[in-house]
Amino acid sequence: MLFLSTVCTANAKTEGNIVHKNEVGASVMPEEIAPIKDTPFEMESLARPIFPDRKETITSADVDGNGMITKAVNEKIAKLSKRGGGTMVVPSGHWKSGRITLKSNVNLHLEKGAILEFSESIADYQPPVFTRHEGVEVMGAGAFIYANKAKNIGLTGEGTIMGPSMDVEMRKLPNGNSVVEKDIDYKMSVKKRICDGLEGRTFYRPKSFSPINCKNVLVEGVSFERSVLWNVNPVYCENVIIRGITVNSTDVPSGDGIDISSCKNVLIEYSTLNCGDDCFTLKAGRCEDGLRVNKPTENVVIRYCLAKDGHGGITCGSETAGGIKNVYLHDCVFYGTRTGFRFKTRRNRGGTVEGITYDRIRLVDVREAFTWDLLGSKTYMGELARRNPPLEITPLTPTVKDITIKNFIVESADRLMTVNAIPEIPCSNVLIENGIVRTNRIIRTINDADGFKFKNLEINATDNNIVVDDSRNIVFENVTLNVPNGKLNVEVKGNKGEDIIYN
Question: How far is Cα 279 from Cα 441, in angstroms, rounded to an integer?
Answer without folding.
Answer: 24
